[in-house]
Specification:
37% of the residues lie in helices and 8% in strands. It has 249 residues and is an alpha/beta fold. 41% of the residues are buried. Bound molecules: zinc ion (ZN).
């Protein structure tokens, strides 16, 4: 259900334990073969499918398309908010909902660069409202809500890359007319050179072409599988939030 379709009166009468979901994504370069909107389109589809699967007791806010994409900013078309500005905006949104009395808030994320700022925002909000009991602030990135590599399809990636096998597959399922030539692209391996550490990076030092992973191995069938697994994972997570009995952990 869409939060912004409710009247103020209806919001006033909602159970304050109703899960509210804030989707956040990005508009950024996805190499030459995928559109700027990829992250926003894919997260939107995961949410649409989750909403169709069952009538959850949850409300979705409109998708926030402006993300943290400064690592892609040297590629034309990338739009990005400075991370601290973005944290402030997300925190303001979360605080709006807390101010209206809601206690169960999930930020569902569709872009890797948003993960750290979301965590920072929610961490700060929890500390600020430390006197509030039963406050549940959660951050989940949609492609971690299930493991597609356990299916029989011939995966060549074991995790999400960028404009990769996974994202290209989902775009082929969703809007193949927006997908350019992906079949001739050589693999760009993930190669974490310092596995024991988190490295700060900009895109062009990992990939001059702007993608990371194996887009040539994408298929619409894989895309269907990914959407199915991730949307079911989202439904399961919302069910868990809704049925939470308020115990601390
Ligand atoms: Zn992406």
């Amino acid at each position: 259900m869409e939060f912004w379709n409710l009247s103020s009166e209806k919001v006033k009468n909602l159970n304050r334990n109703t899960p509210l979901i804030i989707p956040v994504a990005a508009v950024e370069q996805h190499s030459k073969h995928l559109p700027l909107a990829t992250d926003s389109l894919l997260l939107g589809e995961v949410i649409a499918r989750a909403q169709k699967q069952s009538s959850q007791n949850a409300y979705f806010l409109p998708l926030m398309w402006l993300g943290n994409s400064h690592h892609h900013i040297d590629f034309a078309g990338t739009l990005s908010a400075p991370p601290r500005v973005w944290i402030e905006i997300l925190s303001a949104l979360v605080e709006n909902l807390i101010g209206h009395g809601f206690r169960r808030i999930l930020v569902i994320n569709g872009h890797g660069g948003n993960s750290v700022p979301i965590n920072q925002s929610l961490f700060e909000c929890r500390q600020k409202y430390r006197k509030l009991e039963h406050l549940l602030l959660l951050n989940a990135t949609y492609w971690t809500l299930g493991d597609p590599t356990q299916t029989v399809l011939n995966w060549t990636q074991t995790e999400m890359g960028h404009a990769c096998e996974w994202e290209t597959s989902m775009m082929l399922t969703l809007q193949s007319n927006l997908v350019g030539d992906y079949q001739s692209l050589p693999d760009v391996p993930m190669q974490p050179a310092f596995e024991m550490a988190e490295r700060a990076w900009i895109t062009q030092e990992r990939s001059v072409s702007g993608y990371i992973g194996n887009p040539k191995d994408a298929t619409a069938e894989k895309g269907e599988c990914l959407f199915d697994i991730f949307s079911h994972g989202l439904v399961e997570l919302i069910r868990k939030i809704d049925s939470w009995n308020g115990t601390p952990w």
